[in-house]
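Dear Dr. H.,

I hope your travels went smoothly. While you were away I took the liberty of generating a structure for the chain from your last submission, since the lab meeting agenda had it listed for discussion. I wanted you to have the full record in hand beforehand rather than looking at slides cold. The sequence, exactly as received, is reproduced here:
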Amino acid sequence: MAVTVYTYGQLQKSLLSGLLNFSSDTIKAMLLSAHTVGTTLDTAQFLNTVLAAGTEASGSGYTTGGATLASKTVTYTAANSWGVQRANSTAYTVGDVIRPVSANGYVYQAVVGGTSGGSVPTYPTVIGTTVTDGGVTWACQGTGVLVADAADPSWTTSNPGTLAGAYIVFYKDTGTASTSPVIVLWDLGGTQTASNGGTFTPTLDSTEGLVAMFTN
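The corresponding predicted structure, in token form, is as follows:
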């Protein structure tokens, strides 16, 4: 499935207000069968705002509220130690994070996806500025990366049985939607299904995890 990842604009507010501790809180992945995203990426701080514009999935193997994330980790990596180096003539998608082969103390994130050029671009070193690299546009994001990661959530259907979903919202579960901070929304690129004993398993990025944040 082609996943597009969106970080909720109010996430920083929840973190700075002490409402969210990724390591110790109960973090869940809720599957949505439909969602009118609209302005919720900017306005939603809590789950109730998302559910007002969406419908939680139901189906074989799915439990209301979603799956609890296991094996959660939070790690920080300085830019020059970031493991993914930019390569020539390589496909990148929006959200990919790289550092130059010749490390310069900064990491860069793709804000326009495409195929990189055949030669090394001139990297900006002012945070927020961009450079075009073939079909990719890189934004200078910071001097290090903080990654929140976890094991992939998963739902196994019965046989017979079917589960379908088009979006996943990751959130802290307080037991009350109006106080449960949202973290990230995944658009699965259309309705995805699993059936007859199959497993519905969205895969977290192997490098950027669930969410990557930058220091400067």
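Two observations you may find useful: The first helix runs from residue 11 to 16. The chain has three helices and 17 strands.

With kind regards,
E. W.
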